[in-house]
Amino acid sequence: MLRVAILSSEAVPFAKTGGLGDVAGALPKALIRTGEVDASLVMPLYQQTDRRLLRELLFDNLEVEWTGGNRHVRVFLSEETISAPVFLIDAPEYFARPNVYGYSDDHTRYAFFCRAALALLKRLGRAPDVVHGNDWPCGFAIAEVRARRAYDDFYRQTRTLFSIHNLAYQGAFDPRDLGYFGFGWGEVHDAFLSEGAASALKAGLMLADALSTVSRRYSFEIQTPEQGYGLDWLLRQRRERLIGVTNGVDYDAWNPATDSHVAANFNAYDLSGKRECKLDLLRRFGLPEEAERPVVAIISRLVAQKGYDLIREAAPAILETGAFFIALGAGAQEYEDFLQSLRDHAPHRVGVFKGYAGEPLAHQIEAGADMFLMPSLYEPCGLNQMYSMRYGTIPIVRATGGLDDTVENFDRARGTGNGFKFGEYSARAMLGSIYEALFAYADKDVWRRIQLNGMRADNSWDAAARKYVEVYRAVMRM
Ligand code: ADP
Q1: pTM of the predicted model, to two decimals?
Q2: Mutate which of 100, 301, 303 for ligand 1 pocket (most atoms within 8 A of beta carbon)
Q3: Does residue 257 sit within a domain?
Q4: Is the CB–ligand 1 distance for residue 25 below 6 Å?
Q5: In contact, 19 and 110? CB cutoff 8 Å
Q6: Going by C-beta distance under 8 Å and a sequence separation of 6 or more, which residues neighbour residue 229?
Q7: Per the domain annotation, does 221 fall within a domain?
Q8: C-alpha of residue 304 to centroid of ligand 1, in Å
């Protein structure tokens, strides 16, 4: 059995802000199902974490080395929740706050989390074969394992995998803090330095034994100056150690046949429940219950990455088609304002929920919508297009990153494809795909064909988990 410790700053159902949360909540379970991996997850205990998920207080006094005086943290264990042991580090000083991210000391918070995670693994007594860190918050752990291999017998054989879920978030901070974190000199110190700042992401990219990212296409895109965020040179340099593994979907959580959040269940053989879900969705958003009128929906963080500039530009044209438009999102004020004004302008056509809604509403939108819009500027993997497919909701996406890998453009003549895809990042190109989708929607048989193509696609975690096992085995030989 391979012993793998996955470190993540978020994981469903304990805490989530986006796709990383879904992935970190599903991967350990999928790894265990392969029968080859003894996987565990380590994450911070946040204010928002439901305390009922914690099974036992494992340590009430774990010592963590820290500049200015060692700290003591509590560690909780949750075992049943995701079918893998989850260790939650309780450091209220850093994590008992209303939000997951967004504080000026985020780098200190995650440097501490990583230090505590490695102290915990050591206290548990069995060295992991692989420490698998995710995104910049875990770059500190990658750096520390690298440093420890030289002087700490416990971590001598441990290898590291660093996964990039979004290269744009780099965890930059003042390099003077490096000394405070114990990375004050040498190779490990230098690995953090990036254009005058310190970057936890760069340290992870530089010091991990292997790198992965969440789709094949994104693994190539990040090696280009356009999408490399200043680190493409490093990714090109390390490309032989970089692999793309497309995320899966947790079908225990995202399955219209069993979903407890939605108004009616349905499946590929009987889609009648989807109509009920649609009426329920329209009611929830205070829209007229016109079941024939198409619903175009979007759920995303409100950031430029998700293509909101295109949506803003195209909104009048979308409304002119007569479709309903439903948006769920939290983020930049300018996009929240735009959504509000759109809603005010066409209250009988537009439904808006501003803020982070949690799981139920996201599921209800996936189930009730007809089309799901993802015009992303870039998209490492994207999960909602795959959730959409499972729920018979047709994705309309820009051909970038994981969206390009997972969505196949519908071909009317051959009856193949599971969505609509455009290439150019422009409102015009996006509208072209929306019109095409609306045209297909008007023909019930054609629409059913596309729905079934998507509902039958297998985007489960099993294939991805097998790939990760291969990567872990390869990294252990390094
Ligand atoms: P990213 O990780 O870039 O945010 P993904 O498509 O990979 O994008 O994953 C986004 C996840 O977060 C999905 O599960 C989506 O349903 C969820 N999500 C995003 N915004 C919200 C919101 N405002 N309320 C509820 N869920 C949200």
Answers
A1: 0.96
A2: 301
A3: no
A4: no
A5: no
A6: 167, 168, 170, 222
A7: yes
A8: 14
When divided into structural domains, the chain yields a total of 2
| Residues 237 and 306 placed together within one structural domain of the fold | no
Does 254 fall in a domain?
A: no
Question: Ligand 1 in contact with 124 (CB < 6 A)?
Answer: no
Within this chain, do residues 214 and 288 fall inside the same structural domain, yes or no?
no
382 lines ligand 1 (CB under 6 A): yes
Note whether 110 and 214 are same-domain residues: yes
Q: Are residues 121 and 63 in the same domain?
A: yes
CA of 299 relative to ligand 1 center, distance in Å: 6
Tens of pLDDT, residues 172-213: 999 999 999 999 999 999 999 999 999 999 999 999 999 999
pLDDT digits (tens, 9 = 90+) for 335-352: 999 999 999 999 999 999
Question: 330: Cβ below 6 Å to ligand 1?
Answer: yes
Residue 363 near residue 262, CB atoms below 8 Å: yes
Structure tokens at 251: 């079908």
DSSP, residue by residue, 85-97: -EEEEE-HHHH-S
Residues 294 and 200 in one domain: no
The residues near 109 (Cβ < 8 Å, ≥ 6 apart) are 44, 94, 95, 103
Q: What's residue 79's pLDDT?
A: 86
Residue 17 alpha carbon, nearest atom of ligand 1: 12
In this structure, the answer to whether residues 161 and 309 fall within a common structural domain is: no
Q: Is the CB of 22 under 6 A from ligand 1?
A: yes
Question: Any idea what the CATH number is for the domain that residue 385 is in?
Answer: 3.40.50.2000
Report the residue among 214, 364, 383, 387 best suited for mutation to probe ligand 1: largest number of ligand atoms under 8 A from its CB. Answer: 383
Quick check: is 32 in a domain?
yes
d(CA 434, CA 374): 11
Angle between helices 139-148 and 106-124 (to 10 degrees): 50
Q: Torsion over CA of 176, 180, 166 and 4, rounded to 10 degrees?
A: 150
Residues 229 and 137 in one domain: yes
Q: Whose CA is nearest to atom 22 of ligand 1?
A: 356
- Unique residue bearing structure tokens 């509590």: 74
Distance 22 CA to ligand 1 centre (A): 9
Question: Candidates 16, 27, 284, 299: which one to mutate for ligand 1, based on the most atoms within 8 Å of Cβ?
Answer: 299
pLDDT in tens, 360-374: 999 999 999 999 999
| Cα 397 from Cα 248, distance rounded (Å) | 18
Q: What is the pLDDT of residue 120?
A: 98
Ligand 1 atom closest to the Cα of residue 355 is: 23
| Protein residue closest via CA to atom 12 of ligand 1 | 18
Pairing between strand 37-44 and 159-164?
unpaired
What range does the domain containing 112 cover? 2-248+462-476
